[in-house]
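chain below, 146 aa
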Amino acid sequence: MSFNSTTEKNETTAMFTFSSHVSTVQVINNGPLRAVNRKGTTTIYFHPDGGASFGDPSSFEVGIPIQVSDYEQHVMTDLSVSFPFVTTHLNTITSTESFDLNGELLRLGRKNDAWRTQYLGFQDVGATSITGYILGYAVGVSPDQW
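prediction:
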């Protein structure tokens, strides 16, 4: 169960949220194509009451930090159109904490476990505020598998 509601499933009812803090380490431009590499950390939070809001990014950093990982991100985009992008991320766990969910003591991974995520997205910057769409998936990998 990832949400505290059976009917409403969105950021306000999510029991798990995350936040990544990253720095750009390299940008490569090739005509309209751009590659960006970033490094930092990601923290996953357990907050059974939910309450996150896309209008308040800090609300995703509320609750019990249950996992911290080193984070690497590689982004590829085509600047000649309305910013479609592909990203690949590698998270390598540096610490985890147990948490209780419905009377069961759980832990997300172990130190040095890793997972890779890939996203395809579209960012529309022509609107009054930046909007976009994103989809992706995550798989467990060994830390050296990009």
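The first strand starts at residue 16 and ends at 30. The CA atoms of residues 98 and 107 lie 5 Å apart.
thats it, cya
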